[in-house]
């Protein structure tokens, strides 16, 4: 996969040289290129922002450097005629694992990192395919959101994560939060690993893990529970929890 990032803070993307992503880049699985928006300015001050039309606080990112930078990305060539252009913004649609999976299927992404009060609307109208929010809180700029996007997307690419199974039962891939995990020693700090995990009964272990995932999701994220595919056995487990909300009907078996 090819990913181009346009930013006024290229130094922000140092973390992409290390860890899982760094190895994926070394192995040629991800071709990530970071571009400095200021290289597309043509005034002595290298200005990327200006006061908003209509007045108001803060500054708006000027259209000209963005048009030039995004045109240069397209002209630089990639594995498709154009990249899918994503703009992180607190006023975008929420980034979900479903959208991450969709983006991971693209051959070429470009991420436009805005700062200040936003990017001139014409840039977004002309170039963006998606405006994406990480959640209902405000960051200082799109750079951290771009790091999140790149990490969430690239870990799904074939060969990036060693153990494909660990991707398959992620929280949000199953639709439920993951339950607790334990490793040796079996007793530590006076706290014992649940006996079922030491039992060797794989059916009982799978059921216990599912029940823990259901319990945790019901407690912390009832919104997710309402959309998860729950069978009659799941609903029976949840019925025993005496939750402060009604349970959905069971999903139809395929
Ligand atoms: N979810 C989210 C995205 C953002 C920003 S601020 C500037 C660009 C993106 N804040 N919060």
Structure characterization notes:
This protein is α/β, with parallel strands linked by helices and 254 residues long. Strands 2-1-6-5-7 form a five-stranded parallel β-sheet. It has a two-stranded antiparallel sheet with strand order 3-4. Helix 1 links the parallel strand 1 and strand 2. Helix 3 packs across helix 5. The chain is elongated. The two termini are 33 Å apart. 3-thiophen-2-yl-1H-pyrazol-5-amine (J9N) binds next to strand 5 and helix 5.
List keywords for this structure.
254 residues, alpha/beta, 9 helices, 33% helix, binds 3-thiophen-2-yl-1H-pyrazol-5-amine
Give a list of the ligands. 3-thiophen-2-yl-1H-pyrazol-5-amine
Oligomeric status: single chain
Report Rg.
23 Å
* Strands, total number: 9
How much of the sequence is in beta strands? 15-25%
Q: What's the main sheet like?
A: 5 strands, parallel
Task: Give the termini distance in whole angstroms.
Answer: 33 Å
Unreliable spans: none
């Amino acid at each position: 996969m090819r990913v181009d990032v346009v930013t006024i803070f290229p130094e922000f993307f140092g973390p992409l040289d290390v860890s899982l992503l760094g190895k994926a880049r070394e192995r040629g699985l991800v071709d990530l290129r970071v571009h400095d928006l200021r290289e597309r300015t043509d005034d002595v001050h290298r200005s990327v922002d200006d006061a908003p039309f209509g007045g108001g606080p803060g500054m708006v990112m000027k259209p000209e450097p963005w048009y030039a930078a995004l045109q240069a990305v397209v002209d630089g060539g990639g594995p498709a005629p154009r990249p899918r252009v994503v703009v992180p913004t607190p006023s975008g649609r929420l980034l979900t694992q479903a959208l991450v999976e969709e983006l991971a299927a693209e051959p070429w992404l470009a991420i436009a990192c805005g700062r200040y009060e936003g990017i001139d609307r014409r840039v977004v109208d002309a170039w963006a395919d998606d405006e994406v929010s990480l959640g209902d809180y405000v960051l200082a700029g799109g750079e951290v959101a771009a790091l999140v996007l790149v990490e969430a997307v690239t870990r799904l690419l074939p060969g990036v994560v060693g153990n494909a199974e660990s991707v398959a039962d992620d929280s949000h891939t199953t639709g439920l939060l993951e339950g607790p995990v334990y490793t040796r020693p079996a007793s530590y700090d006076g706290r014992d690993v649940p006996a079922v995990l030491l039992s060797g009964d794989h059916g009982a272990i799978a059921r216990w893990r599912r029940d823990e995932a259901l319990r945790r999701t019901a407690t912390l994220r009832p919104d997710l529970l309402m959309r998860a595919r729950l069978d009659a056995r799941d609903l029976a487990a949840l019925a025993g929890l005496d939750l402060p909300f009604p349970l959905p009907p069971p999903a139809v078996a395929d």
